[in-house]
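Protein Record: Sequence and Backbone Structure Tokens
======================================================
Tokens: labelled as protein backbone structure tokens, with as many entries as the chain has residues.
Task: work out the structure tokens from the sequence, keeping to the layout shown below.
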Amino acid sequence: MVYPLWSIRMRASMTVGGGHRCRGPLSNQKTVHISGAEGLYKLSEIEGVTRYYLLRAMNHSRGKPDTVVITVERVRERPIAIPLLPVSTESCDSPDDARRLVSRLLSDTGISEKAIRSGLRVVTGKKVMRGASLVFSVSGSRAEPDMERGVRVSRLGIERSSERALSRRLAKAGINTMTVKEALILASKVASCRGIVAELCVSDDPDYTTGYVASKKFGYVRIPNIKHKGSLRGGRVFFINEDADVEQIINYLEKTPVIVRQTAMAYRTGHPKKSETFWGPR
């Protein structure tokens, strides 16, 4: 990878509500998140990536945005190298099964029932946050300073040779999509953060019904049918230690550049503790 790198971030949104009957220009209006994407890239890649991000924003299943913001920023700090999490897929037939599986996995990391319930409320509630929620792993209390904005994971990417190797391995498992790759890279950065115990994610994309739970303990666990197709609900929760430094966690997730340079990972099916490895390092 050639340094310095450039952080390219895309956020697409749509304003709904309001109209000619409103007393003020902002009355009854709200901004709805449509799409987002980002990564670390070389200077020569900026033009192609920004074009791809724009097309992606304008053709999303959540609707047509009326605002697309693409930010290109030079990263002056050399990124920290991190490994990808190992990948597994559970067998799951319904959202009810998914809820039980999520609870079991999170409980295995020491997260309390109260905290699990708090996290599930975030990802199943009517109000979809723009970023992730921070939930203390024992008390279940929310810790993010802004409960509408949440915490955004930013400045992350993958070494190109590692990305090619990852694509080959995901293709063998039949899951070589940008959705899976981007989520895996993000979850790997989250898991590398001191103070974070586990992550729960449910996409707000109505056409995408596979969520995941991730942790350094058992890796990245894909959970099919985590919600019903057509549902716009979703969200992301980071469960943190009770004594975690919230400010440091937010700074690392949002400001510290990281890049995946290893693909020492395995793909499995079934429970992470009992599953068979189909591919990975020997």
